[in-house]
Amino acid sequence: MTAATDSSLFPRVPDSADGVLDGLDPEQREVATALHGPVCVLAGAGTGKTRAITHRIAYGVRAGILQPASVLAVTFTARAAGEMRGRLRQLGAGGVQARTFHSAALRQLQFFWPKAVGGEVPRLLERKVQLVSEAAARCRIRLDRNELRDVTAEIEWSKVTQTVPADYPAAVVKAAREAPRDPAEIGQIYGTYEQLKRDRGTIDFEDVLLLTVGVLQDRHDIAEQVRAQYQHFVVDEYQDVSPLQQRLLELWLGDRDNLCVVGDASQTIYSFTGATPDHLLNFRTRHPNATVVKLVRDYRSTPQVVHLANGLLSQAKGRAAEHRLELISQRAAGPEPVYTEYSDGPAEAEGTARRIRDLIASGVPASEIAVLFRVNAQSEVYEQALADAGVSYQLRGAERFFERPEVREAGIKLRGAARFGANDTLLDDAVDLPSEVRAVLSDMGWTGEPPAGAGAARDRWESLAALVRLAEDFARARPAASLADLVAELDERAHAQHAPTVEGVTLASLHAAKGLEWDAVFLVGLTEGMMPITYARTEEQVEEERRLLYVGVTRARQHLALSWSLARSPGGRASRSASRFLRGLRPGSGTGAGRRTPGAVSGGVERGSGAPAAAGRPRHRSPARCRVCNRTLTDAGEMKLMRCEDCPSELDEALYERLCEWRAGQAARLRQPAYCIFTDKTLMAIAEAVPGTEAELAVISGVGRRKFDRYGSAVLALCAGEELMEASGDGSGGAAKNSSEK
């Protein structure tokens, strides 16, 4: 077990509050024990953020510091909220409310509506598309299917940014947003849509937040009642908070500051819905006393995957890029990412399917493989290629697991067997829980071997097989569990939409893959016009596309493949080119990835001071700590490297060899020992940091002013991969060759 993952689907409940902290790394433990005042957790991909915040809540509850009913944890999807509730239950902290913003607001609205307004809460409109279509027709505006979807999205954006219909055209200009139609027309449709809702006594999901905000703003007695109920707040995925959600959070808090937020600005991929990382990036400004904890130990991905992810962000621009986190892999080395160029789209899909089939043959489960693409329309060719290759697959975002007919039927049969099993001859030969489940499902046609090929029969079998595997895991974790206990577990999972693993390759869009991970990930269709998408025109939009690709890269634990095709169809014109985001990352495309550049944030903890330090006052110098494991460093060599000798290194070995060769030449010419030029540790520090500017080189321990003046230009040239002219007599190493030399 690593510090970021559990070894079982059903871990044992810790026997004490201190037991909740077992297995956490130093930064995660800081999160878990920071129970008072504002806390901001900057958590990179794969660094165990959900583990850290659930253990924080559980530790507070188990230690008697937090009352379960006084804690409200909010996140952005029902699946994430369900997962959080499940983890808290496993840690012995049941009773904590973990909900989406909309779910929490709807509960409060339903409870307080009779008191605040009177009567019944208006009926909730499940889907607004039909009403938007009617509003457009009343405005005598024709919308095709795609325009209808886009206009609906614009109405949603307007409401979460608290923009009224009359202000929509001006708001679009101010936000540099590209409207799908004439903004005046959309404003007109938006206004008519709102009027239709009022006429019919309905509200939509955005209204749930707006109305809750209105009630809490207007009725101070109700606001105080809510604040008396909830004393502590935790917000996950804080980079995705909209202005409306932030306003609701502020009303929940009042003048208190018991708030813990968790996020990563480099994973902001929903700005088109109104989400903004500004609330996360400005947290320390709003809360000067905040404790800021940075999680950068990546337990998910191999060093090779992490190196690529860091390299992708090292080329990023904008405010989010200035606060990016430099991940440090905690896993053993794995295979290098594979880059493949194909002649056309079908060839790319067929090649991907072949590689997936080979991975499965090598022992990688199909459920641990994903094919990720930019838009859902790309899935069809991969569905066909996988079917032709005899590989089962599942579409992410399709029908929910617990809503499948065979799963519902299985639930009914298992519930009946749990209640009347003693009189059921079907269970006569069952010796344990898994065999009971297999016996019940065999009555539905389930067998130990899957049916041949793909299709509906195989899909049905995979659903039932997932239930069998879940029963086996459940029995291993709880040997005394009965069939009734398993049924209760299934009911809890259905409520939380926490589905068991279905055997089959996952096909999903990059947006739908957020929050998930697999052993092997295939990022496909990485061409200009698709990544970044063709309508991403501003720098801000392009940078969001880069972050979207970063999310895709960081879904992979071990195997990562990136591919693109030159033509759409066989025989077509090869007019496509690989995504600009791959320049400098794939071999032969320019400067190598992974170079540290200004703005990258390392891990650690920052305590809020409440006020800036007085000018001219000597600052207390903190002890040097390993940037990997956070241990205090005392050895001079380790302090120079800023890491323990045996902690993982990001050393650029080729650069280190070039530096050593250059140093040997300088030492021979100057007739000095090599260490007088630079020590081994200093060269290692340079090869780990790979400085690109004078400022970056100057801050490395061992590079003093004298050595910087004498050797700085040569070292920077070597770091940039340039060849040096034969050394001059002063020992500087000479100038780099330039392109004008013949």
Structure description:
The chain has 742 residues and is an alpha/beta fold. The protein has 5 domains: 179 residues, Rossmann fold (3-Layer(aba) Sandwich); 78 residues, Arc Repressor Mutant, subunit A (Orthogonal Bundle), CATH 1.10.10; 141 residues, 3-Layer(aba) Sandwich (Rossmann fold), CATH 3.40.50.300; 96 residues, no CATH class; 68 residues, DNA polymerase, domain 1 (Orthogonal Bundle). Helix content is 44%, strand content 10%. The protein has 29 helices and 17 strands. The strands form 4 sheets. A 7-stranded mixed β-sheet has the order 3-2-6-7-1-8-17, sandwiched between helices. A 6-stranded parallel β-sheet has the order 11-16-15-12-14-13, sandwiched between helices. α4 links the parallel β2 and β3. The protein is globular and about 90 Å long. The chain starts with 16 loop residues before the first helix and ends in a 23-residue tail after the last helix.
Would you summarize the structure shown here?
By secondary structure, the chain is α/β, with parallel strands linked by helices. It has five domains: 17-109 and 210-295, P-loop containing nucleotide triphosphate hydrolases (Rossmann fold, 3-Layer(aba) Sandwich); 126-203, Arc Repressor Mutant, subunit A; 338-399 and 504-582, Rossmann fold (3-Layer(aba) Sandwich); 401-496, no CATH class; 653-720, DNA polymerase, domain 1 (Orthogonal Bundle), CATH 1.10.150.
